[in-house]
Automatic annotation (TrEMBL):
Domain NADH-rubredoxin oxidoreductase C-terminal stretches: 315-382
Pathway entry: Nitrogen metabolism; nitrate reduction (assimilation)
Disordered, as annotated region: 793-835
The protein's assembly and partners: Homodimer which associates with NirD.
Species of origin: Nocardiopsis metallicus
Domain BFD-like [2Fe-2S]-binding residue range list: 412-459
UniProt keyword annotations, A-Z: 2Fe-2S, 4Fe-4S, FAD, Flavoprotein, Heme, Iron, Iron-sulfur, Metal-binding, Nitrate assimilation, Oxidoreductase, Thioether bond
Protein name: assimilatory sulfite reductase (ferredoxin)
Cofactor note: Binds 1 [4Fe-4S] cluster per subunit.
Nitrite/sulphite reductase 4Fe-4S domain ranges (all copies): 616-754
Coiled-coil boundaries: none
Role noted for this protein: Catalyzes the reduction of sulfite to sulfide, a step in the biosynthesis of sulfur-containing amino acids and cofactors.
Length: 835
């Protein structure tokens, strides 16, 4: 095997190793990656989410270490010996190479103004930088970001998330001068200012001045003014990290960057450069898409291919402080004779510009601010004839543009350079849904903004996704719910007789039972619905591996009195149950036999407990930290709110289980961002996050609305939950529900916050009906002899325990033993030990 050494373990270096590993089926290359950060590659594009609750693990791109790939973290390359073909690291490690790749990225530029190195001054580049920001923000009231470009606005948002009042100072006359023009910049400034960020354009920063403690205290401006600044963040651009290349005698650009040709090769045939460190045809790219394109080209070259890098699309679509901003092609109209078509609607917060050729027939570029929904279809048309009236393409009531107007050469996914032709070819080869297209082409796997276009192309290819719930119903779950609501249907048999075929199955029966329950169809075990439920719902407990059940009483917010703790302990002792504290701040009691459940519930209900619905597709828990009650960092009463929410939404039946949490400050001890709806306290109220899920595909929740008072918060949660119940598919959790929704989170926000569909009052009334009609399912069973009759192992011997169930003892608790054959005596193992 030949040795490939990659210096740099960022996103582009990671992409190279992934691409080469996929292509190198002959195992020609052994890869060694050297990265100086203390962790493997992570998503730097999504860095701001780290301050919004995401963890370093959430941002991780995965560890590539394995056969044929070695990765060294906390290891800085210090020298390249081109003659010996070795790389030396700071620890003294010497790595030989046959080919070397410099994926060293860039460093933030800090202007050498006086005071730039004072304590309290930061850059915004790595997770460690953000950790430093977080630490300083604890004692800061005001922060200033120097630089009003993309990263500058990201940094300003980071300060807001940390509870620090933010100012942005930009030398140019408007924000984001590299991407947008003055008209778009003026609108963006208005929108950003409305969000609480103070913007100062057309002025330079001249010095960071220290306070009595020697830390940054204010920023002096060239116009003679100054800004108070407990923190200063420099975000005025980046510089390619080309020092290793310079020291090794490689050719670098006049303004920096390692010069490469179209094969991503430097002036040394054995050394390559990719990403922000590379200088190609006079350009150093500062975006992820060109870096990925270079990585793919180089990976192809390393396995004998002939791919070339001839440049990259620098179009970009961003969401900055909640504002959509997009630019593509010749956005500034620098082409000779270029014409502009502009819609500047400041009242509705929308700016759109198309740049056309001098004969107004060819699209050259454009800018979108406030509403960037047209970006996905306009960007691929750059360089192509316009398919219609340009004004109609960017006005709100215009005809718009569909993907069938795009040529096959149009790039659908700029992150991964996937064209419409490649997507169409994948469809013709059998990829008939978005998931299969992602797998075949990688389109939609990075930022996801092209997913709506993938759906359009599938539809235009004549491929429609079946909405049928199962073979017995052609309707979707949502359609069945509307049918049941409109017709007043109360039984499965009536529904299938009128709108389905056959007798039903294990898919449609529980789904319909869930719909009936969510619409207030009485007790879960009433009448026909009792026979439709899954096993857990049928017995109001979770079936375990040995045929016993677990019992989980509700403990709202995790708050419990000593007396109630004692009751749980006594029940566990008296019925010889295994006890476990769950991740949702409850206590799980395992090992209850079917006939024991009513007796266990009786003890718990008498002590004031009720069903925790751990068995149902319903609200499980609202987890909480201790908030202002005990914590010195808490800013709101998280326990009180968690209890209010759990008691409000208990028993709410839904398409899938629901979990929630309330954190009393931004430190997020309750892990609210991992929940279907999570709440995080701010100094002035509550931030509401939605769509967080665990499971096989974990998702981080996204901010739906911020700084809400408690009553408004609850109204929004009411609407969110009821909208989810009415429109989600069968067994669809909130995260994929939002992802599949046309318009995604933005559409959901319009519905929940702005009532764009005019259904807010109806949703709130539906939730009020649920709250008013709630009864504890355990207590209802105990008061009904007919329901109690189902909790018997043997109809003719109600008190006889199931002889196939046995236990052994581990760590002084009963755990399932080996099943006992019927007809054999049950082993007496309750006091035996497996150790």
């Amino acid at each position: 095997m030949e040795e490939l050494v990659v210096i740099g373990n960022g996103m582009v270096g990671h992409r190279l190793v992934e691409a080469l590993r996929d292509r190198d089926t002959a195992h020609h290359w052994h890869i060694t990656v050297v990265g100086e950060e203390p962790r493997t590659a992570y998503d730097r594009v999504a860095l701001s989410t780290y301050l919004d609750g995401a963890s370093a693990q959430d941002l991780s791109l995965g560890d590539l270490r394995g056969p044929g790939v070695d990765v060294h973290v906390c290891e800085q390359a210090t020298a390249i010996d081109r003659a010996a073909r070795t790389v030396t690291t700071a620890s003294g490690r010497v790595l030989p190479y046959d080919r070397l790749v410099l994926a060293t990225g860039s460093t933030p530029f800090v202007p050498p103004i006086p005071g730039h190195d004072l304590p309290g001054c930061h850059v915004y580049r790595t997770i460690e930088d953000l950790d430093g920001l977080t630490a300083d923000a604890e004692n800061a009231k005001t922060g200033v970001v120097i630089g009003g470009g993309l990263l500058g606005l990201e940094a300003a948002n980071a300060l807001r998330l940390l509870g620090v009042s933010a100012h942005v100072v930009e030398l140019a006359p408007h924000l984001m001068p590299a991407q947008i023009d003055q008209g778009a910049g003026a609108l963006l400034q208005n929108l950003v200012t409305d969000l609480g960020v103070n913007v100062h354009t057309g002025t330079a920063s001249t010095a960071v001045q220290a306070g009595p403690d020697g830390r940054a205290a204010r920023l002096a401006l060239a116009d003679g003014n100054h800004l108070d600044a407990d923190m200063v963040v420099f975000s005025v651009g980046i510089r390619p990290r080309d020092d290793l290349a310079r020291d090794a005698g490689l050719t670098v650009g006049e303004r920096g960057g390692i010069v490469i040709d179209d094969t991503c090769t430097t002036s040394d045939a054995h050394i390559h450069a990719i990403g922000e460190a590379a200088h190609h045809r006079g350009t150093v790219y500062g975006l992820i898409a060109p870096g990925n394109a270079m990585a793919e080209v180089l990976a192809d070259r390393l396995v004998g291919g002939a791919a070339t890098f001839t440049g990259a699309d620098t179009s970009t679509k961003l969401k900055l402080l909640g504002v959509d901003v997009a630019s593509f092609g010749d956005a500034h109209g620098r082409a000779p004779g270029a014409l502009d078509v502009v819609v500047n609607d400041a009242a509705s917060g929308r700016y759109a510009k198309l740049v056309l050729s001098d004969d107004a027939t060819t699209l050259l570029g454009g800018i979108l601010v406030g509403d960037a929904s047209a970006y996905a279809t306009l960007r691929p048309l750059v360089g192509s004839p316009l398919p219609g009236d340009p004004l109609a393409l960017i006005t709100p009531d215009g005809e718009g543009l569909s993907t069938d107007a795009l040529p096959d050469s149009a790039q659908i996914c700029s992150c991964n350079a996937v064209t419409k032709g490649e997507v169409s070819e994948a469809i013709s080869c059998g990829a008939h849904d978005v998931a299969e297209l992602k797998s075949c082409t990688r389109a939609g796997t990075t930022c996801g903004s092209c997913v709506p276009m993938l759906k359009q192309i599938l539809t235009q290819a004549g491929i429609t996704q079946s909405k049928a719930l199962c073979e017995h119903f052609t309707q979707s779950r949502t359609e069945l719910l509307e049918i049941i609501r409109a017709t007043g249907t109360t039984t499965f048999s009536a529904l299938i007789d009128a709108h389905g075929t056959g007798h039903g199955c294990d898919i449609c029966k529980p789904a319909v039972a869930s719909i009936l329950a969510s619409l207030g169809g009485g007790h879960i075990l009433d009448g026909e619905t009792a026979t439709l439920q899954d096993t857990n719902d049928r017995y109001l407990a979770n079936l375990q591996r040995n045929g016993t059940y677990s019992v989980v009483p509700r403990i709202p917010g995790g708050e419990i009195t000593p007396d109630k703790l004692i009751v749980i302990g006594e029940v566990a002792r008296d019925f010889d149950l295994y006890t476990k504290i769950t991740g949702g701040q409850r206590i799980d009691l395992f090992g209850a036999r079917l006939e024991q459940l009513p007796a266990i519930w009786t003890r718990l209900v008498e002590a004031g407990f009720e069903s925790g619905h751990a068995y149902g597709k319903s609200l499980r828990t609202v987890k909480s930290c201790v908030g202002t009650t005990w914590c010195r960092y808490g800013v709101q009463d998280s326990v009180g709110l968690a209890i209010r929410l759990e008691e409000r939404y208990r028993g709410l039946r839904s398409p899938h289980k629901l979990k929630s949490a309330v954190s009393g400050c931004a430190r997020e001890c309750a892990e609210a961002r991992g929940k279907d709806f999570g709440i995080i306290a701010t100094e002035t109220g509550w931030n509401l996050y939605v769509g967080g899920n665990g499971g096989f595909t974990p998702r981080h929740a996204q901010l739906l609305a911020g700084d809400l008072d408690e009553d408004t918060l609850i109204r929004y949660i009411d609407r969110f939950l009821m909208f989810y119940i009415r429109t989600a598919d069968r067994l669809q959790r909130t995260a994929p529900w939002i992802e599949a929704m046309e318009g995604g989170l933005d559409h959901l926000r319009e519905v929940v916050v702005n009532d764009s569909l005019g259904i807010a009052q109806e949703l709130e009334e539906a939730m009020a009906q649920h709250v008013d009609s709630y009864t504890d399912e355990w207590a209802a069973v105990l008061n009904d002899p007919d329901k109690l009759a189902r909790f018997e192992s043997f109809t003719n011997a109600p008190t006889t325990p199931d002889p196939t169930i046995s236990f052994t003892t581990t760590r002084d608790q009963p755990v399932p033993g080996a099943p006992t054959p019927l007809g054999m005596p049950t082993p007496r193992t309750s006091k035996e030990s497996t150790r």
